[in-house]
Design goal:
This protein is α+β, with helices and mostly antiparallel strands. The chain contains 13 helices and 16 strands. It has 2 domains: 229 residues, no CATH class; 131 residues, no CATH class. 41% of the residues are buried.
Amino acid sequence: MRDGETAVLLDPSGLDRLFAALTRRGYTVIGPTVRDGAITLAELGSAGQLPYGWDAGTEAGHYRLRRRDDDAVFAHSAGPQSLKQFLHPPRARLWAADRVSGVIGTDEPEPPTKRYAFVGVHPCDVAAMAVLDQVLAAGRYPDPAYTARRDGTFVAVAECVAPSATCFCTSMGTGPGAGRGIDLVLTEILDGGHRLLVAARTPAGAEVLAELPTRPAGLDDVLAAGAAVDHAAASITRHLPEEPLPALIADTRGSAHWDDVASRCLTCGNCTMVCPTCFCTTTEDVTDLTGEHAERWRLWDSCFSLDFSYLHGGPVRASGRSRYRQWISHKLGTWHDQFGMSGCVGCGRCIAWCPAGIDITREAAALAATRPAKDRS
């Protein structure tokens, strides 16, 4: 919570009223839920589908769902999915064409009919949404497929009170406390009675909050919420080097450490698929058997794919070494040149979901260690 914000208390049972208030306004509610052995983001019909009493244990190359010893709702780490799949979906039709009586006509895809309300997402994912806004909506040519889904969204963030072992949001300034781009801020308090401290940051958030069964918050509640977030920040053990990362990546582009990474990297692209900010795509044209109907689809792609850098004659980045270096160089380095910000929000998904257990924080630290001392400034 920010200094000066007016906060109130909401019992967990009041989350159903939050869902109802958002549904009445025409939102499709997206929130965390337990599904397929993980805490995933999905369309939810009620607060009863939230992951009460669930958490996940993570490490490099490891994710396991586990039961908590309480009924915490939002005290869990990031699962394999992020807001990206709803705003920048894995498959999107760009256009279709039909040939009728020798004449070819095209049509644009129907605009999305769903307006999303994201409830219980963590600050790192909201920060990732801000990155996607910069990449896909703020440039000279905004992506209409993204903006049509992004415009009019409602965000009720749950400040992170239980980060996982793979989180490093404190290095990126993206958590565990809530940042910008938020309508409602929820902080779950588990000590001294299970309750949520809630504050509105926009008129839309205040309007929804006015409909919830809240009660006044005392100073003890505010201090308890702040202590929970501070404890979460102190418990984060992974960190990126405390030096300008673009310069670090540029200075070590010839380092032999890239060969060490390449010997372990499977170039499977898992890290780019779970990353909440990776936005690269390819296109695919399909036709029916008659040849009278054709469609063009946009699909997620990855810089780890051999064909991603294909030009006439072959791929530019043919080795696993060059493809991993491209990914981390863009994420931590040249993203700043393109968009004025980092492409990493410290969610730790790439670490947990890498089958080889490659850890971006350790690789960055290893690169920093290869630089001559005179260059570390």
